[in-house]
Every structure is written in C-alpha cells, then in structure tokens.
Amino acid sequence: MTSLGYEKLKGELKQLKTVDRVETSRAIEVARAHGDLRENAEYHAAKERQSFIEGRIQELESRLAQAEVIDPTKLSGERVVFGATVTVADAETGEEKIFQIVGLDEADLKVGKISITSPMARALIGKTPGDQVKVPGPKPKEFEIVEVRFL
Prior knowledge:
Elements: H1 3-32, H2 41-66, E1 85-90, E2 96-102, E3 113-115, H3 119-124, E4 132-135, E5 141-149
Parallel strand pairs: 2-3
Antiparallel strand pairs: 1-2, 1-5, 4-5
Helix pairs in contact: 1-2
C-alpha cells in the first residue's frame, strides 16, 4: 500500500480504539441499566456494534502488520508499476483519464485511485507510454497510455 493509505488505516484504527470502542461500551452500560436484556433492543444493537468494531480492529491490525508500504515519490521510470499515476486516452473517443494504482484498501474511483487488483490496473502494469492496452470486461475497452508519473 502507499504511505498515504497506511496512514489512513492507522487513523481509522486509532478512531476505533479511542473513540468508537469507548462510546459503544458506554452505550452497553446505559442499555444494561434499563433492565431485562432479552427484550432490550438498545443493548443488542450496542453489542452488535461492539462486535463489528472489535472485528474491524483485528482486521486493521493484521493489515497494518503485514503491509508493505511504498512511497510513489521515490519511484521513477516510464513503466507502469504500483503507485504510478497513469494518464490514458480512450482509443474510441480520445477522452483522457488519470488513475493512480494503489492498494485494495485505498481504492476510490471517484478520486481516480484504482486497486492493483482491478482489471484496468492489471492491464496497465508493466506497460509504457504509447502502449495500447485492452481492459477486459462486459464491454472490453481499449486505451493508449499517454503518460506515467510518480507523485
């Protein structure tokens, strides 16, 4: 993952441990004080939330422990690799799009970040400017790589 993605996951983990976990514990205490737990919807909702939070904490701790952090600004060259920002032109329309290839947890198409496991990223990896790539899918598309940068 990129260093930005790593920091984002660390921030989420901190939020879960220091804020969400504490709020949920308080909600359980308040719901418990209402009496009969068998018919207490607040209590069951809080326990379910607690379970989700604990699971997410374990997942994030595992991902962060196993993460290989790559700083795209320290990369160079013309070949598309993980962390590269790639400008492509649609072969049919000529419309240009810019994508950064990032880890699964960082992917957000709205801001142009695509997962390394996406069909587009897999088609781009290893290519250089001027290369044509075919992206498989229900409607296969063809693109030309215009530029490769490392930001």
